[in-house]
Design brief:
Layout lengths: L8 E5 L4 E6 L10 H14 L5 E6 L3 E3 L14 H6 L2 H10 L3 E6 L2 E3 L1 H8 L2 E5 L3 E3 L12 H8 L2 H10 L3 E2 H7 L4 E3 L4 H13 L3 H13 L7 H18 L2 H10 L11
Parallel strand pairs: 2-3, 3-5, 4-6, 5-7, 6-8, 7-10
Antiparallel strand pairs: 1-2, 8-9
Length: 264
């Protein structure tokens, strides 16, 4: 394991309930080698139960240019860690993690980089960012980025990215629904950090269960009555796990404003 670069990702665990994972291979456009994937897994393990939000960022001019296809087979010496750090498993770790994942995309998000954007629960992009699926140029279908993009946006737009290898900027990504918001590059970090802190102020149980339901509806429950029933059952689960919901209602009844309620 000593041969694995410990600096392939940089991790900051804040006291505000936010963990920031920064991909740190700028010369390789933050391509995901084994070390970077292991770094993500270890960071997620370290903040489980303590951080409510995880922010993904890239160092240098790229967010992530995909999986590092130049790297040969590399083992950590730990079979379970090797399994968990395979690319598909990294996506599942991000999806199953109780924290809300925010992608802050400041540059290239290509192939596997777009997969990370799609896996994230929320995404903020720089207007200058560049999103694309270059795989067709290699005679390939994007194994992870293709399906995840097709699940996130409409069919024609997904087909354009898959079949043309054209890239789109942050503003277009927002219009197409790949990201929630696009801002000038010099505002990206502040925008993403503010969003992370805002979300981290909410109940940890409420966030975890809401994330779970956002993945289940409509992918697992697409029929109206089934989705509503799942939502009702989820409320019961939250009440059983923690008194946050009841405390919030009691505060509202006493005239107090809860986080996210607004000022008017």
């Amino acid at each position: 394991m000593d041969s694995i670069d410990q600096d392939a990702v940089l991790v900051s665990h804040g006291t505000n309930g936010v963990t920031t994972i920064t991909f740190n291979r700028p010369k390789q456009r933050n391509a995901m080698n084994r070390a970077a994937r292991v770094g993500i897994i270890r960071a997620l393990d370290a903040c489980r139960g303590t951080s409510r939000v995880v922010v993904l960022k890239g160092s240098g001019p790229s967010f992530c240019a995909g999986v590092d296809i130049k790297e040969g087979p590399v083992s950590t010496g730990d079979a379970e860690l090797d399994r968990r750090s395979e690319w598909g498993e990294v996506q599942e770790e991000l999806r199953r993690h109780p924290a809300i994942v925010i992608a802050a995309v400041g540059g290239f998000a290509l192939g596997g980089g777009l997969t990370l954007v799609n896996t994230a629960d929320l995404a903020i992009a720089a207007d200058e960012a560049s999103f694309g699926l270059p795989e067709i140029g290699f005679g390939m279908y994007p194994a992870f980025a293709g399906p995840s993009t097709q699940l996130r946006i409409n069919q024609k737009r997904a087909a354009w990215l898959v079949l043309t290898s054209d890239r789109i900027d942050g503003k277009t990504a927002e219009q197409w629904g790949l990201v929630n918001k696009s801002v000038p590059l010099d505002q990206l970090d502040a925008e993403a950090d503010a969003l992370a802190e805002r979300i981290a102020a909410f109940s940890d149980v409420g966030l975890e269960v809401s994330k779970e339901l956002l993945w289940k509806v409509p992918s697992e429950a697409s029929e109206w009555s089934a989705a509503i029933a799942l939502g009702a059952a989820t409320t019961d689960r939250i009440r059983a796990r923690k008194a946050d919901a009841d405390a919030g209602r009691a505060a509202f009844a006493q005239g107090q404003r809860n986080p996210g309620q607004g000022t008017a």
